[in-house]
Amino acid sequence: MANKTIIAKKEEIVNEIKQKVEDSQSVVLFDYRGLTDAEITDLRRKLRQEDASYKVYKNTLTKRAFDQLSINLDDCLEGPSAMATSHDAIAPIKVLADFAKDHPTLELKGGYVDGKETNVDELKKLATIPSRDGLLTMFAAGLMEHVKNVAICLDLHSQNLEEEK
Questions:
Q1: Most buried of 46, 95, 131, 152, CB within 10 angstroms?
Q2: Cβ-contact 43, 54 below 8 angstroms
Q3: Mean per-residue pLDDT over the chain, rounded
């Protein structure tokens, strides 16, 4: 029988994983084997810049936490897995996908994004979506186009009124 302190520590880790998953918009599981310490440090820095975190948990504890949350990502928990989490649904996916382009040893496995289990193909599609700031900029530019057109119309109308006088 396992020591009570060991069981308590494992329960604490399972609760930590559950809390991270519940508090995050996205959870991405990936294989980090083959990355050097410098590359892992670089990846952590890039994730931190996007307000995301990265941690390695034992697969058995991660599976237990996912089971308690009714999430089925068992196929993603084969072999060493790291977990990236964030309050932004797209940020860690973009960082990991961009990092994987330069470091082919990093392999996305799957994830849990906006309350849905997500496979690798869906993660790659999500990685192509512009960031939240980029989307807001595009939206604002679209609104500004209409305001600009109204201003031009009003200016032309005022010029016509002046010519008629």
A1: 95
A2: yes
A3: 88
